[in-house]
Amino acid sequence: MNGAGRRRFLKAAGALAGLPLITPLLRAAELLPPKGPRVVVVGGGFAGAVAAKTLRMASRDLDVVLVERNRSYTALPGANWVIGGSRRIGENRLNYDRLESNYGITMVYGEALAVDVAAKNVVLEAGTLAYDHVVVAPGIGFRSDAIEGYVPAETPELFPHAWTSGEEIVALKRRLEDMKDGGLVAVSLPLPPYRCPQAAYERISQIAWYLKQAKPRSKIVVLDANPGIAVLAELFGRGWERDYKGLIEYRGGQAVTKIDAARSRLVTAAETLRADVVNLIPPQIAGALAQRSGLVGADQRWCAVDHTTYESAVASGVHVIGDAVLTAGMQKSASTANAQGKACALAIAGLLGGRKPRPNIYSDVGYSLLNDREGASAIAFYRGEGRQTVPLERGGGASPDWSELEGVYARAWLGSMIAEMST
To answer: All domains of the chain, ordered by start, with CATH?
Structure first.
């Protein structure tokens, strides 16, 4: 987006920010006249891309339009391995060409400013897209007001979070490479819900693996707002003790409440810590599009939905999937996003075909690498029941220990997830 375009976008976003639901205030030309019943999907990540593909597979009569701001996407799962050195960031990049050619999905590249619920339009800078149903996968935003001194336009440059795109991992890795041997790395984790907590502990492991090989006199201090490791606690604790004893110092119950980015300082209720490299992952909320379009629920943070159809609790005909969704217990993960994208798409195809949607059973699968070879996994099953996701007692569980076989499974799982959303 050029300078003039960005100014127009910011002006529009500012004008929309206070509206509970977008009313017909914005009017522009229809970009693409519908060719039949149309579903517009906004966001081409693990949830949105799979939803668009599943819609076309379910019904070739549907006019499916996928709106994405970027022509290429760099997946965040597996990007932590770039820090450790066992993966290249290019392996996480994909584009949407095959979704167009193989499935007949119409790609529109641009920033979605808002969903105009009353007019049943998605509003872009260049015009509007009419819809019969719209699927919104807005991702996450950050609660910068939760940390004193956090400036959204500046702080991520000094304290990179690397939590919205795999490309951001490259900047974090460069910081680690530039750090002197013997330097201190601080990693700050928020309270859930936030995007994939399991990946946060994997990141600590991958940073430790890199430091152990390249800068062995260095150290990591983990400031975790949780009282203890929140996911796979026994496995991560055991792996860190075995491989990274003296390298990782974990401090639970240490929420960062204030920062001094210029002096590279983090402040908690218990201490002030200065570090050479800071990976600060802030508390999170549903992404900006959900906020601008009035799709967040009573908590003003996440989007409440019906977990059978993923229709918004506050906007008829609008379906929300992915990390922005309010769920109980389920991680906000690529696996969950994939499952929601499929369930939502099949529900919409059924509704347009006059069929009653059925309740869904979801699997939440997560893989992590401890070093360059050994992996572990966790799986849980849930049932969607109205506004709730209910954990199922049977099935699932975690790996008994770190193993090279689980590392092989982790890479195969990631490859299949990326292939499914792009081919």
So the answer is: 3-69+110-139+287-356 (3.50.50.60), 142-285+365-422 (3.50.50.60)
